[in-house]
């Protein structure tokens, strides 16, 4: 499934600040703007059936920034096979009080994303004068074991209402101010730390979200950096063998627990997310979970059979993850850390070594590093009794390692037990005096290793980029590859981590954050010409606990023809900010936004998930930062915010940029590395493919050109306080006379309220239906979604691609009414609004996140009104949109997965272009008028639905609905907007049913997709059948269940529920969801675990709401030698449900998984938006309130027979099933380009999309 998603996000403007970091991150390839400081394009892969299985998709900790924080985890990760929950990003905040893993760096790619929610919850304006310092009473932290007492953080009485540091006239006041900055930040009041006699450290944090569940993570402080030359990959191997070989972990299957593991440079983590108890378990599950972790970490059985099984899996994983994005990230890391082992100890390891190790070799590494004193246990969750928890830990782990333990290392005090061995103890300005790397073959007897651990983690020495350390500059490094499509360059600066422990540390973080937020906005507002010099510019300044350093990265992405200008513009903008600094307006704007955001985090302190809290604590501990809760973080920020001055912000921020702005000067910090990743061939209009040539000296020349270009100070922009004035609103009300009309013509009621769900349904006099729900789950926050029926399915043969290009054009322009794009973006920044816009096959969707303070909801409604009534369509925006999709189309042959999926989709859907990327010829035929009509013809009143969820009052929400939605002009035409040409599956054709794609590459890889028809979510098929009618007439029990067994188990009420399910509109949605879980479990057990044919296999169902069809897809990765067997095995699993019938245990496990997921997400506003979608949509007539109210009971009522009824309607016979196998390698037969017919050259259309966003160098999940 292919969609266009354009995300307008203030987040990069309020960029993530790690402790002492200013993190400006744009995660996707192209920066255009519409309604916020930055927004990015996200285009779906041709087939969106397959999320990354096994990798838990988690929202960031509320004090970790981003909704989709791309964390740079150079690690292996493995999961027990479970369906992944699409967790609502309810805690995606921007704040100053954390460190996060550094983002992935590398070339950008046009990546998949389906209406990804990337918003930030923001706060009301804090009444804090920037020039004043006010007294703030920050509560002291309670003290855990061996943790110092927190110093008082109250502002000294003598320093009140003084305007900045410069105005502290008296020496006494200045000293008091300086003393205040040296005060330690408060520690988390609920975090309990302790240590067992055997050295095992533990941290416990009670947390009620989600209720009745907890996280238990065992972190062993060993990783790939600890491997000897002949052990490269052995830490990852142990992770696999220990985790998947644990019988006690297997006992947790079916309890609703999820388990996972990963390995990175310097630690291995095994973690279990579990309910506190289950209906079937006797008592508390915590001891069972701890016992499983104890066995996994300290008592694994290195059976030869398990070692061989995991060896096959890891070798498959190695090939699967070896994408061009992975190779790019490896290149970047090798050059960034060329002086130490980080450049050559990637966790996945070396193939030739992995093939050799026996169980004894693996066991010896485990004995060397896996002991309690080298591990930390983290437990966060719904815990009421800390003492009881400590007793459980003592009982399970207390005797482990004691029999052979020698004297344990002394326990450090101060910040906490973790800091001394996880955080480099580095002095700024010193490049020596560090813990030396271990010499090869320096392995000592196990007992000596148990005496001490590395005091520095990771134990490597860095060459710092410090002022005055400039030596002969290394020339830029160039990585050139035939699978790269666009130009990308990374300039790195590497310095020691500055731990954030005092108010002065926090103040520096805040000032850097403000400074770099301004830079990000400035650069991206210049992306407005029809042929821009760059596609994206990112500046990332972040700490990395895994690498033991702080890295600043300037990343510039551009089409190859424009690379010199792109570098020049990026350097020029950095110089401009460094020379002239931020303006007073920018300082006030970004400081205010940070305070609002911080206040929102504090308000949501009781709504942060356990896993987010745990991730935050682990990373903060690794970096040596003080761990605060959200309220402490806000109060601490307020305490320092008023002391910030413009001069200091510009001075502190300028230091971050000197390695770029003063490049080449002896006094400047030298770049740690400059790495360009470039294609070997480029497309030139009118000519075709040509060699791309570039030399390191040319890159230096481009940098120096940016240093010589004349610059001027940034002018202040006028920012609108409102988009619709009160006078204009009054005029609109008089003209349109908005009112509510009956929702249901039969009942004649204008307001439907459901007590069970709290959902209110309304309908406006202009025909727009509205649903809303008042929710207190996310304090002072709200979300709103507009769904418009039609989408890409409504595209005509004469205007292929018109909707997807039109949505992008609307976003590229970013103007509404008389307001420029920059004004609209800053309006969003000031009101902390985030908005996304996307087109899918069925709908056009627009989503808003907003704060409930400072009229944030009213501002969001104003923006929606202006988009619907006063959108501006621009020629240059249209050109950019076409350029973007042209480049995306041309990049398909350079991706094995995308080219394989593209070929399959064209075969299965008979070449229907609405489900793939528009071709160059289709793009050339489009006009601005066509794309405008294609989009706006769908924006008619009776074809729209608006849903809102938030912490608002009934009076406020209904006022906004009437004033801003009710005054939208009435336009009818839903029948025309929803009309679409039939979508058909291609009839059986032997040559197209089973295809192959070959891709020339230096390394071997293989993947495959198997797909076929399915009904849609409501039981309709592409053949015109209404399956729900036939299902409701099927007897309650059939051949797949024993009637006596069923009647013995079920009471009358349960039987009635089963009958209700058969007649319910959600029958196929429920049963297909259960079927997906069951098939996925079997695929893992058979194809991956038993046969060893793959590392990654998944079964996904794509069930449409409006279109009368759906499809299933099995995606599998393998090696060229095994991929055909893997495909056959996948088909056999899918077709084998009759011969190997579904067991009650399988169904119960699938049901429990889905219900646990529902329970975990039910408090999320975004989740409720999904539940409410289409409630009043004319194009989805079967959706009603019962689909929300009855959800749990329907899952509980489903039987094995019900699942088989759904299974029977998947077309899995050989004549209906389509497959495509992709093989990459130097000996690949047919060039992949033959599968994508490049149409005649289109003059004037240029590449604008980078190939990749940068893949992490972590190995993939085991499942």
TrEMBL record:
Gene3D superfamilies: Metalloenzyme, LuxS/M16 peptidase-like. GO terms for cellular component: chloroplast stroma. Keywords: Chloroplast, Hydrolase, Metal-binding, Metalloprotease, Plastid, Protease, Transit peptide, Zinc. GO terms for biological process: proteolysis. Cleaves presequences (transit peptides) from chloroplastic protein precursors. Initially recognizes a precursor by binding to the C-terminus of its transit peptide and then removes the transit peptide in a single endoproteolytic step. In a next step, pursues the cleavage of transit peptide to a subfragment form. Belongs to the peptidase M16 family. One of its GO terms (molecular function) is metal ion binding. Its cofactor is Zn(2+). It holds the Pfam family Peptidase_M16. Residues 357-594, 926-1154 form the Peptidase M16 C-terminal domain. This is Stromal processing peptidase, chloroplastic. Residues 214-338 form the Peptidase M16 N-terminal domain. The keyword Metal-binding applies. It is found in: Plastid, Chloroplast stroma. It comes from Sesamum alatum.
